[in-house]
Amino acid sequence: MSLSVLGIACSPRRNGNTTRLVLEAMETAKAEGHATELVYLSDLKINPCQGCGACSAKGICVIKDDIPNLQEKLIRADRLILAAPIFMMGINAQSKILIDRMQTFWALKYLHHQTLINPSGYERIGLFLATAGTKKLDVFECAERSIKTLFHMLDIQYAPPCLYKGIDQAGEINEHPTAIEDVRKATQVLLIS
């Protein structure tokens, strides 16, 4: 059975550490015979939420950019792999803008009581991948709250994440003793769940 696997690379660095992780995850999914698509947020035109409340009326955002197309991909995905670096002890700005713009989904789900997904018969599951330059104990806490909230709103089960501290300069993730293999295994589990 083939799954639709959507990867979202949220780093502004095309050669960043979290991008390396999501590339590994997508290669693993593809090698297992699943349909994959990787979206780089840096390639999209995405504007921040204006807080206007227009989406509450009909669940439609008034901002004209690439978010509706990405939302269609999110609706169709059986599996989501989201890779976002940690900036200032939270998710980076690109990731936060993406999450904030999902307010339309919140309005559809909670105000208009509409389902967000086209049922494929599969339980939807998501994997969060992240790296952080600091080694502080709670460095992933804020980011995980945001990602868990996003996944919950999208009716996506939150799988055990792959999170790596002390990874700052581009390419450092390749020197981590287990990260690449961890991501391969986590992706394989995601695909058989």
General description of the model:
This protein is of the alpha/beta class. It has a single domain (4-192), classed as Flavodoxin domain (Rossmann fold, 3-Layer(aba) Sandwich), CATH 3.40.50. Helix content is 38%, strand content 17%. It is built from 7 helices and 8 strands, in the order βαβααβββααβαββα. The protein has helices at 17-31, 54-58, 67-76, 93-100, 103-111, 141-153, 179-192; strands at 4-9, 35-40, 79-83, 86-87, 90-91, 125-131, 157-158, 162-164. Strands 1, 2, 3, 6, 7 and 8 form a 6-stranded parallel sheet that branches. Helix 1 crosses helix 7. The longest helix has 15 residues, at 17-31. It is globular and about 50 Å long. The two termini are 12 Å apart. The model has no long low-confidence stretch (mean pLDDT 93).
Please describe the topology of this protein.
Layout: E1 4-9, H1 17-31, E2 35-40, H2 54-58, H3 67-76, E3 79-83, E4 86-87, E5 90-91, H4 93-100, H5 103-111, E6 125-131, H6 141-153, E7 157-158, E8 162-164, H7 179-192
Parallel strand pairs: 1-2, 1-3, 3-6, 6-7, 6-8
Antiparallel strand pairs: 4-5
Helix pairs in contact: 1-7
